[in-house]
Amino acid sequence: xxxxxxxxxxxxxxxxxxxxxxxxxxxxxxxxxxxxxxxxxxxxxxxxxxxxxxxxxxxxxxxxxxxxxxxxxxxxxxxxxxxxxxxxxxxxxxxxxxxxxxxxxxxxxxxxxxxxxxxxxxxxxxxxxxxxxxxxxxxxxxxxxxxxxxxxxxxxxxxxxxxxxxxxxxxxxxxxxxxxxxxxxxxxxxxxxxxxxxxxxxxxxxxxxxxxxxxxxxxxxxxxxxxxxxxxxxxxxxxxxxxxxxxxxxxxxxxxxxxxxxxxxxxxxxxxxxxxxxxxxxxxxxxxxxxxxxxxxxxxxxxxxxxxxxxxxxxxxxxxxx
Amino acid sequence: xxxxxxxxxxxxxxxxxxxxxxxxxxxxxxxxxxxxxxxxxxxxxxxxxxxxxxxxxxxxxxxxxxxxxxxxxxxxxxxxxxxxxxxxxxxxxxxxxxxxxxxxxxxxxxxxxxxxxxxxxxxxxxxxxxxxxxxxxxxxxxxxxxxxxxxxxxxxxxxxxxxxxxxxxxxxxxxxxxxxxxxxxxxxxxxxxxxxxxxxxxxxxxxxxxxxxxxxxxxxxxxxxxxxxxxxxxxxxxxxxxxxxxxxxxxxxxxxxxxxxxxxxxxxxxxxxxxxxxxxxxxxxxxxxxxxxxxxxxxxxxxxxxxxxxxxxxxxxxxxxx
Lengths: 322, 322
What we know:
The structure is a homodimer of 322-residue chains.
Chain A: H1 4-17, H2 25-35, H3 42-53, H4 58-82, E1 87-88, E2 91-92, H5 94-98, H6 100-118, H7 123-151, H8 158-183, H9 188-215, H10 218-221, H11 227-230, H12 236-244, H13 247-256, H14 262-275, H15 278-299, H16 308-318
Helix pairs in contact in A: 1-3, 2-6, 3-4, 3-8, 4-6, 4-7, 4-8, 7-8, 8-9, 9-15, 12-15
């Protein structure tokens, strides 16, 4: 068994060692660029942690881990185009640096690169790995589409929101772990259980994100607290508040959408969140998904002590402050 | 053995039978839309023709044929965004109808759909099929990138141009046939020969396109003759002319780039093509690639009469008038 940080180191080294064609240069440079912008390498680490859980070979799981990280970064390139985002991890986004058309195409070829990496897994599990990967990739596209559509809708339900974050964020966490488990030799039941663990953890993680945006410690959060409020982002907190707010406060809340005084806006919306105990409701929902995740993990048929690295990481993620 | 039109019918029926998820609707509707815009279904037909050549099962090759057609249509969606094209086969392009962000994402999920279709081939050939498909998909992205880059360059050589059309168009023809051959049970040598046939045929086909644009019969061509000239498109003919033209005529040619009188522009550029026998040079080059294609086909280790459907189709394509 390896620690998460050992695995992150293995991945970081492997990413540094990845090389791409150089012709045409502008097609491939964005791949090295975004792959080396950093990040915690959580998704590929989860692939290796899952393989390790079933005493699988890390060497065999590593290409799949790199495939997941490559796929994730491909989605970042295309998402940044759609979101018109100028910066990614403090650096220019690919479409800002190379232009939108170039970024579309570099993303496309990056998807091919992830498929190429995936074909390096043992032939005996190739079909199963691909089925899991394709279902995952499809879910991620669906989640991004829903996220875009929600921006212009005013009737998004909590249920729809949870489904969106499940698709956009959580299926990739589940898929990464399931792929690691398959390569690591898990049986179907255990592979599905680790998927459930990952998916539920992913949803809990995203709800935590929504909570931290409002209630994070400004000293530790790393981003501006209240960023989602300023952007009128439909988070769990906002949708929950809209569901339970009385008519009078609903008017007050609606008025905030156009409030140009951002500090006042954050203050007023946060006051409403506090008044309606929205944080507690969000925490409860988050704990629900976390409980589901741990129930799945606990049902996996390997000695409990082998699960400690994974449960430790999950707890660490859920207690994070940024 | 089946005729090309029998195979095209099988494919057309199978495409009509394809169904996609309906959630989110706007993610999947563009897939059905573009897949049903029509077209000659040449690429998937070539998959089946190649499988048939080696007495392979068409049922087994059909998902791979659909994967190739799906992939091809995905590239059309993204290319149309990059080219800012309003129309595709006389209908609105996907990005015109659904918006650019939606079109990027529908293209992405379509790439996943083609990968899903590919996993339906026999497990015994899955790895080989995927390797061929991924190399092909990568080449197509490279070709599109080069094509975009050539637009703003004035020093594109004939060699670079041939390499671009090879990647953008011909590797998919070769790749489609190689995948069909692999599924059909061809050995590696024959699979590579049919790839060579397809790739060289693809290059010849594209050169033919360049020639037809200038010398096609206006009654039969279907598009405006001289469209490439109006658009200042760097075709084989233009690049060849630029290579051999004398200084005086080079000035005349350069002046045409900005000529707003399109009929006069077509007339003058065509006159230069005629004066320098550029058509003959292009036809010679095209025949070169066609000869290479037929040499590869003839070297394939199956009875010659089994190759007649494929050679017949190739000849038909090369004698086309539109």
